[in-house]
Amino acid sequence: MLSAVVRFVVSALALMFVAWITPGVEVAGFWGALLASLVIAGLGWVAQALLGRGASPASRGITGFVAAAIVIYLTGALFPQWLAVTWWGAALAAFVIALVDAVVPTELR
Fold first, then answer.
1. Sign of the torsion formed by the C-alpha atoms of 42, 19, 74 and 99
2. What is the pLDDT of residues 46-65, one digit of tens each?
3. Torsion sign (Cα): 64, 70, 73, 74
């Protein structure tokens, strides 16, 4: 349980960092970032279940990148009070999150 909480807190902080450096992405503070991270994780899980492991951002392929950008954009469309994002912002956010994830992996083993 604690590992899941840590993972979402790290994801929320990464999302806040992305919003800080990426044009076209805005989050509504820490709680908005935390809630958006929960939704992004849920939508990512659904995308991976439907499209297979190749749709996971962890695979770092073009399919994973596109799936991550779509999931980020859908989260912003579904919950604009937590996350405001443009198409370009979602693509840049997916790229920056992949870079952050390469340095500080949020997947706990």
1. negative
2. 877 777 665 555 555 777 78
3. negative
pTM over 0.85? The answer is no
Contact 38, 79 (CB under 8 A): no
Which has the closest alpha carbon to 42: 103, 54, 50? 50
Spatial separation of the C-alpha atoms in residues 32 and 107, rounded to whole Å: 21
Please name the residues in contact with 39: beta carbons below 8 A apart, sequence gap of 6 or more: 75, 78, 79, 82
- Per the document, the length of the chain is 109
Q: From CA 87, how far away is CA 79, in angstroms rounded?
A: 15
